[in-house]
């Protein structure tokens, strides 16, 4: 499985994979590698982005921006700073020689499937190389074909014609097709040596059953051309959703889809996205996720067929109408 991941990540010789049981655990491993670099290089700061989500365990939570997630637990980790995404000037000002690492999600899922600009990712890679900071991509949500690429950063680097490979990359979610597994990919021998023998471990990380699930997942994605299917089905769904008057914006990257509900469509609903989650589940049998007052996130399975995509749009449209009918009846 490690060899299959390194091949798909186009990682150089000397790269390695550490297996965990979740995305949070993978990010904990990445953070410990950055902390080793912080200690060894005498660098006191770690950067993450506003709107970020890296997990709910202690270290991963310290890198997660949303105060509602962090504040109940007080101070979690000193030296972590949050900077605005897609603000290159702010990045250049913050990323000085005392930064140990920069954590990025190529697309912020918790914020509603909001991508980093290509130019921002390019500049982040340039600056971290220039200043000796580690660049960490959290591809827990975007990796393993979700965006129609094996990894989101690869699509960006193809567009720009230059390598944007990180120092470290974290994976989980789709890697096991529902079975618990996570992974930290270290690019090159220097990054592979950040954590020495005994400095990190996991009893069940890389266990045979999880590894078999990961191998089967990667093979199936190849055998059934599911990366191209993710892009095709995502485009199909997005095109249909953009025709709906209740929808003001659709952000689509493969089958990673964010939806903004039109603010005027549900004037009596203080949180229309949350209400739609309930209506869609109870009335239409759909599982969708609200990430904001009017923001929804979709993550359909990569095996989605034409018929199921059309059925989803039909049920989603029906759910929107049900909400509007309820609101009319309450007036």
From TrEMBL:
Keyword Transferase: yes
Organism: Candidatus Nesterenkonia stercoripullorum
Sample GO molecular function, one term: pyridoxal phosphate binding
Listed CDD domains: OAT_like
UniProtKB keywords: Aminotransferase, Pyridoxal phosphate, Transferase
Essential cofactor(s): pyridoxal 5'-phosphate
Keyword Signal: no
Protein name as annotated: Aminotransferase class III-fold pyridoxal phosphate-dependent enzyme
Similarity comment: Belongs to the class-III pyridoxal-phosphate-dependent aminotransferase family.
């Amino acid at each position: 499985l490690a060899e299959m991941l390194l091949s798909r990540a186009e990682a150089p010789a000397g790269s390695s994979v550490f297996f965990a049981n979740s995305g949070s655990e993978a990010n904990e491993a990445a953070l410990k590698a950055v902390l080793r670099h912080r200690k060894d290089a005498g660098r006191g700061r770690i950067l993450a982005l506003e709107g970020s989500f890296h997990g709910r365990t202690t270290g991963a939570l310290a890198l997660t921006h949303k105060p509602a997630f962090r504040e109940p637990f007080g101070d979690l980790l000193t030296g972590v700073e949050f900077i605005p995404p897609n603000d290159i000037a702010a990045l250049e000002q913050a990323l000085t020689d005392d930064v140990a690492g920069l954590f990025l999600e190529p697309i912020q899922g918790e914020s509603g499937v909001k991508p980093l600009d290509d130019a921002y990712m390019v500049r982040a890679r340039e600056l971290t190389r220039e200043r000796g900071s580690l660049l960490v991509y959290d591809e827990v949500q975007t990796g393993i074909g979700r965006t129609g690429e094996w990894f989101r950063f690869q699509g960006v680097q193809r567009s720009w014609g230059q390598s944007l490979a990180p120092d470290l990359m974290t994976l989980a979610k789709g890697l096991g097709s529902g079975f618990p597994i996570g992974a930290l990919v270290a690019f090159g021998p220097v990054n592979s040596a950040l954590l020495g023998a005994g400095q990190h471990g996991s009893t069940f990380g890389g266990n045979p059953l999880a590894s078999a699930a990961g191998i089967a997942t990667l093979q199936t994605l190849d055998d059934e051309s599911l990366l191209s299917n993710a892009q095709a089905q995502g485009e199909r769904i997005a095109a249909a959703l953009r025709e709906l008057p209740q929808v003001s914006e659709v952000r689509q990257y493969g089958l990673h889809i964010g939806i903004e509900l039109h603010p005027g469509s549900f004037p009596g609903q203080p949180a229309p996205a949350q209400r739609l989650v309930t209506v869609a589940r109870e009335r239409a049998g759909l599982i969708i996720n609200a990430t904001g007052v009017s923001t929804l996130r979709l993550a359909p399975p990569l095996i989605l067929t034409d018929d199921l995509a059309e059925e989803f749009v039909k049920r989603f449209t029906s759910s929107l109408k049900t909400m509007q009918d309820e609101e009319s009846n309450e007036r």
